Amino acid sequence: MTEGMLEVRALAVAIGNRPVVSEVNFTLPRGQTLAIIGESGSGKSMTAAAIMGLLPAGLRLASHSEVLLGGKPLPLRDESLMRRIRGRRMAMIFQDPMSCLNPYMTVGAQIAEALRHLGVRRGAEQRERIVELLRLVELPTPEVMVRRYPHQMSGGQQQRVMIAMALASEPELLIADEPTSALDATVQAEVLQLLERVQQRLHTSILFITHDLAAAARLAHDIVVLQSGRVVEQGPVGQVIHAPRQAYTKLLVSVRQMLERPQAGHDRPSERPVLVIRDLSYAYPARGPLKKSNKVLDGISLPLHGGRTLGILGESGSGKSTLALIVAGLISPDMGEIELFGDSMAAVRFRMSPRQRRRCQIVFQNPYGALNPRLTIEQTMREPIELLETPGRTGLRSRLEQSLADVGLEPGHLNRYPHQLSGGQRQRVCIARALLSGPELLICDEIVSALDATVQMQVLETVRSLQRRLGFAMLFIGHDIEIVRWVSDDIAVMHRGRVVELGNAEQIVQAPAHSYTRRLIASAPALARASVNPGA
Amino acid sequence: MRRYLPVAATVIRGAAQALGIVFLIFLLCRVVPGDVVDVLGLEGGLTADQAEAMRRELGIDKSLVDQFLDWSGGMLQGEFGRSLRYGVPVSGMLLHALPVSAMLAGGSFAIGLALALVLAVAATSTRSTVLDVAINALNIWSIAAPTFCVGFIGILVFSIWLGWLPVLGGVGMALVIIGLDNAGQLVKPLREELRECVSLPHVRTARAKGLAPMQVAVAHVLPAASPIVLALSGIVLANLVSGTITMEVLFGLPGLGSLALNAIHGRDYPVIMAAITVISVSLVVINTLVDIIARLIDPRMS
Amino acid sequence: MRFPAWYTSSITRGLQQQPAGLILAAATLIPIIAAALLAPLLGTYSPLAQDLLIRNHAPSWVHLLGTDHLGRDVLARLLDGGRTTLLVSTVGTLLAFVLGAGVGLLAVTFGRVSEALVFGFIDLVRAMPGTLLALLLIVALGSGALPLILALGLSFSPQIAYVARASYRREIARDYVRAARTFGGTRLHILGRHIVPNVAGALVTQVAIILPRCIVTESVLSFLGVGSSPDAPTWGRMISDAARSIQTAPHVLVAPLLALIILTICISIVGDHLRRGLDPVRSDDSAIGREARPA
């Protein structure tokens, strides 16, 4: 049994009288990694903030809670004492590196600030140390990077700077709060590898907060599973993932495993194409006479046959969402042709007729923004009927109730406002609304990205069963390989506005041909492939 | 070079705005009221010949386009025409009045900004509810109590009841009154902005580095709030105009505001146009400068 | 217009937070407004009747607030002036709202050209401080209630127009607006169904901010002697008249001074509470924040 670097005893945090974290206990051994897993609202980030003494205003730490660092209790309730420990013995990195770096300072100046706090004075020594730290986090040309502002760097580079800043004091404890969630899949894998290497070199203990079971399995020795502020299960990685004892953990693991199992019935007879895209190009118009226009789509060609699902897989900035907006008729492309149900869209300057709108519908990523907060669900669902159909209102209410039942909601939901529904329920309403006009093509733009893993699976299963019953074709846009593969018959991989690979879903995942696809698939942390650490 | 293109664009926009305002003033002061000589002639009882001579002298026998070009061209050379009432060059009158108004406006702006910054920073760092109540009260006071009312209260209390100051010539009192008014306008939005800035992710990063509160405030919170401070300054400048004019009238200070008002009462059109043009064009200049500073401070904007 | 339940409940929630100041303000405001509006019915004295034998008399049972330098009843003038002030500033605020919200929203709805034209002009007006613009309009049109209302409406409308444009841009990028477009909703349908209900709160809030400022600006202008018609008593004019006898009869000055400050402070407090209750951004965000807050 190794010595405990960080011991958390009966940690409890409350906002007013509402507990956010209740009685959390765990021990992180020296030089190892402990992952706290949880969905949104589980209290995992508040646990991390409480340990750092950085709880947001309004949240209180219970008086009996105790945190021990290196065997000695942390002075959690004395800000001036905590300040001396933060940035020296423990450091933290956060989710969104862009907003976590000061936009008004060069990254060099921000690291220098951390060094001055440690007593390293301005001058050659400080400059050398900054470059050394940037080299440690494997940034190319550190001498150049020092003078950059955060907005001049990519997300992955920003997160490396954050890590360099946290490592300035070679802390005993590094808290990483969802350090990769805001990054693209390929970058995520690189940052996780970097953390691993840093730990090997500096023997830092890492507290890794994440929602991603696969990422936790890859990096951690031990796992603590949190649900609504309580510890559901904790233990070594191998045990928690391969032999979960609690129902919630089993659900989390099964969701991931379900995605990794290939779907049956992938090859349905292909009908005539509902959508043919040829040489589509689009550039965001220049903002002002001095700016350059920004090319997002560069000669896209894709076919989609009736009743089938075409997955569009790509990272942020690949142009996949722009493609969705163009097919939905919300923006017009600069060049190229779309044949929708056999009709040329270029011939009508990409203006859809009401008939085409009925047959082609879209569901958006963020269910919080897709429903007007001032309208009840019923008012929201009436809108497409009022706009797309001739008025014949008999039996409207029962028709709406039926379509809600199709997506697993109850008639009572019709009278509610969006803010009274959960994220998953809102997304179900959006799907029901899009299906009201009986479309033959449904565009799904990252429809589950904003949802928790367990809710993701429920929504995906609903969509798939509706597709089997109603037979519509789907253009399914996503960034998560496992999810796109689970839903799709065929996959098109997009990178920087181009389709780099197109083919059968299984084939693309098992035997990717293009180098970018190979990189993308290698970076996906899959449970089955996760190398479970034998330690702990 | 790229860095200065947006600055140049801001300057061009400012120039266009100034030109628009000059045109608006010309339109409202010379075109809409009609023939100045007719308006004045009714009072002065001029004969037709005298009126004709006066028109020629004022240059208003020409077309409106020529008049506009003459007038605006003259102003570019510092030539504002002659006062109808006093017969002296308007430029000389402006030179006397400008320093008074500039001192009032600049001094009270400095007082207001300093007071607002101190109060807002103190309230943010101490989280004191007393300070927040004081900030709210000062804000409502400055919105609701016009400066001239506060001026009269000041005169009543300090000059008449306490007998401390002479009734007229209270430059100090005017400075304090407008300064408090400015502080009230600034302090509340500033406080709200600081409250939000304190919980920004990069401020949390600075705290996680273990920096001292002072260092966090100066290096991380205030820069994030600077765009708002600059934007607010523009709004306060507009309020300064009203405050300065009333204080000048109230305390009998010979500034641009008194000049313009006396001219309005005496229908001294060249003086009205000159005074209003000087005030509003200097505001456009200041606002343009504020815009440029905002662009230069933020590395993301270049 | 029927407000959804959560909407009205957010108003009452806002009111419940700090009721004492609000109740006090409202309790002061209602009698002032009622007295000012009903002044002609109550009327014992004419606000214009002079009696040079009783100049600058102190308050008494005959003249409750005393008389001014021409022997006119101060109370009667106060009530009459209050009516003028309230009328001019309310109409000015409404004009600012119609110009700012109506024209601003329509301009952005109907494309870039109309937006550039309308907001180019608004930018120009905004560069002029309100008091200067009012002075200019009075030079151009002569003094009186109409130029004054026009000046108030014009100089306060840019503020509302900018809020309208910013709210419009925020709303037009929402996914529910995009969804409505995929159903074939026209610009006017989207404006009416989605945008106006969502920006109305922010715009009404502006009215609460602008009304006290209109009252103040009106008083400033009449204090400067360029307000409504010369003989109509307004509070600003009463103050500037009373200033002449500030040494001998300060009570003539105190009455309109206090009336003006109390009125504007009370309206500001009520407006502030209304704003806090109505502000759709805050109530929206807090509603979303409660669910979407990361663990």
Main attributes?
heterotrimer, B: 302 residues, mainly alpha, 2 domains, 12 helices, flat, C: 295 residues, MetI-like fold, 11 helices, elongated, disordered N terminus
What does the model show?
The complex is a heterotrimer of chains A (536), B (302) and C (295). In chain A, 36% of the residues lie in helices and 25% in strands. With 536 residues, chain A is an alpha/beta fold. In chain A, the strands form four sheets. Chain A has a six-stranded mixed sheet with strand order 7-8-9-3-10-11, with helices on both faces. Chain B has two domains: 1-85 and 266-302, no CATH class; 99-255, no CATH class. Chain B has twelve helices and no strands. In chain B, α6 (129-144) packs across α8 (171-198). Chain C has one domain: MetI-like (MetI-like fold, Orthogonal Bundle). Chain C has eleven helices and no strands. Chain C is elongated and about 80 Å long. In chain C, 49% of the residues are buried. Classes of the chains: A alpha/beta (536), B mainly alpha (302), C mainly alpha (295).
Largest sheet of chain B: none
- Average predicted confidence as pLDDT of chain A: 86
Radius of gyration of chain A: 25 Å
The SSE order of chain B reads: HHHHHHHHHHHH
Helix content of chain B: over 70%
Number of strands of chain A: 21
When the domains of chain B are counted, the total is: 2
Q: What portion of residues of chain A belong to β-strands?
A: 15-25%
Count of alpha/pi helices of chain A: 20
Through-space gap between termini of chain A: 8 Å
Overall pLDDT level of chain B: 83
Q: Helical stretch count of chain B?
A: 12
Classification by helices and strands of chain A: alpha/beta
Content of β-strand of chain B: under 5%
Number of E strands of chain B: 0
Helix content of chain A: 25-40%
